[in-house]
Specification:
- Helix content is 23%, strand content 27%.
- It has 390 residues and is of the alpha/beta class.
- It has one domain: Purple Acid Phosphatase, chain A, domain 2.
- The strands form four sheets. Strands 1, 2, 5, 6, 15, 16, 17, 18, 19 and 20 form a ten-stranded mixed β-sheet that branches. The chain has a six-stranded mixed β-sheet with strand order 8-9-11-12-14-13.
- Strand 13 and strand 14 form a beta hairpin.
- The radius of gyration is 20 Å and the shape is globular.
- The mean pLDDT is 95.
Length: 390
């Protein structure tokens, strides 16, 4: 790969101090089994074809990897991530939360999987210092409209931004705006695509609650997003499009997705595409010096011991730490910490697993103009050149 670069070396120490550092990750699924080992477990009843009691997921995980302390502390699930956050000190932490926070028993009928966490366990998010939860995904209405409302109310009370859903479309399209002292602002929009499993009926409208659903990745959709961004965009804003799209398995990135991502940057004024839905990491692209993560993979779930798709290694994830120039929104550097889900917590991945992730990302990044360098302590760094043509 020619002309590989990381612009980090082009910034003086004084300039680097003005950069904005973010933490991004993929799916955080802290309902079902994980909720059951917290201090305030929900009613364990499930309405799934293969599991009727959420405690069953705890049993499967313990059979695979040993006992899990019960009840866990609120900070337990974040494991080794806590030390990484302390070391890196990101200005803003953003996750894709695929769990409703509710006591509602009004499950969405006709849907096989329903994630729910008791509102009493909300300190698990504040213990991690999470700033913003993208919510426009295929689990936010698992427990009905009351579950959606209670999720938003609980997050607001905890002073955590929930974005991408609301009592109507206008509210669902409203971004989370977070000020970073003396540096600028981070503005997050959240929306989802039906191909990620979001029912069409979940779409918010002028007089109906729900999420911001992108029915098509079309020019009209870009114009709609552009209009919403222009209403809030200010100088020194980092604008993030957090998008739930695509299936759970497979490395393919469609031409339609790439074109849409490029147009979000070229026409809508987006600085980062934070893509998720895939249960494993996917290729990364840097287009016009703007970061596109097509699939972040899973960061926390209760899948331990469940067979199927093992070759994708869905237990492995990444802590993404992009550093950006708020004056331009351009990516300066991207470092990634490889992680593994084990015992319902985030653990640092082994050297072998870190190298496996680097090889996968380099392989999938070839046509996107990116490759991975493995550094000290298994830290992965992104290197990029001009991507290949669509």
């Amino acid at each position: 790969m020619k002309n590989i670069e990381s612009q980090d070396t082009n910034h003086s120490a004084r300039g680097a101090a003005n950069l904005i550092t973010l933490f991004l990750c993929g799916d955080v699924m802290i309902g079902r089994g994980i909720d059951q080992v917290m201090p305030h477990p929900s009613d364990p009843i499930l309405y799934e074809p293969y599991m009727r009691d959420a405690r069953g997921y705890v049993e499967i995980a313990e059979e695979a990897n040993g006992p899990i302390p019960q009840p866990i502390s609120f900070s337990y699930i974040w494991g080794d991530a806590l030390a990484e956050w302390e070391r890196t000190k990101p200005d803003v932490k953003i996750i894709n939360l695929e769990t409703t926070i509710t006591k509602s028993g009004d499950y969405w009928q006709g849907k096989d999987i329903h994630y729910r966490m008791n509102p009493g366990n909300i300190p698990c998010l504040t213990a991690a210092g999470i700033d913003c939860c993208a919510l426009a995904n295929n689990h936010i209405l698992d427990w009905g409209y009351h579950g959606l409302t209670e999720t938003l109310r609980t997050l607001k009370k905890a002073k955590v931004h929930g974005v991408g859903v609301g009592k109507n479309l206008k509210e669902a399209q409203s971004p989370a705006v977070m000020k970073v002292r003396s540096k600028g602002r981070v503005v997050v929009f959240s929306f989802g695509s039906p191909d990620s499993g979001i029912p069409l009926s979940w779409a918010a409208s002028e007089d109906k609650p729900g999420l911001w659903l992108l029915r098509e990745l079309s020019k009209e959709t870009i114009l709609d997003i552009q209009e919403n961004i222009q209403q809030v965009k200010q100088p020194k804003d980092i604008t993030i499009a957090s998008i739930h799209w695509g299936g759970n398995w497979g490395y393919e990135i469609s031409r339609e997705q790439r074109e849409f991502a490029h147009r979000l940057i070229d026409e809508a004024g987006v600085d980062i595409i934070h893509g998720h839905s895939s249960h494993h990491v996917k290729g990364i692209e840097v287009y016009q010096d703007k970061l596109i993560i097509y699939g972040c993979g899973n960061f926390l779930d209760d899948y331990e011991g469940i067979g199927g798709h093992e070759h994708f290694r869905s237990d492995l994830g990444l802590m993404f730490f992009p550093r950006l120039d708020p004056l331009t929104g351009k990516l300066v550097s991207l470092s990634m910490i490889p992680t593994q889900i084990k015992n319902f917590r985030v653990n640092l991945a082994s050297e072998a697993d870190a190298r496996w992730l680097s090889e996968v990302l380099t392989r999938e990044g070839q046509k996107l103009g990116t490759e991975i360098e493995v550094g000290r302590d298994n830290t992965l760094s992104l290197r990029w050149s001009k991507p290949s043509r669509l």
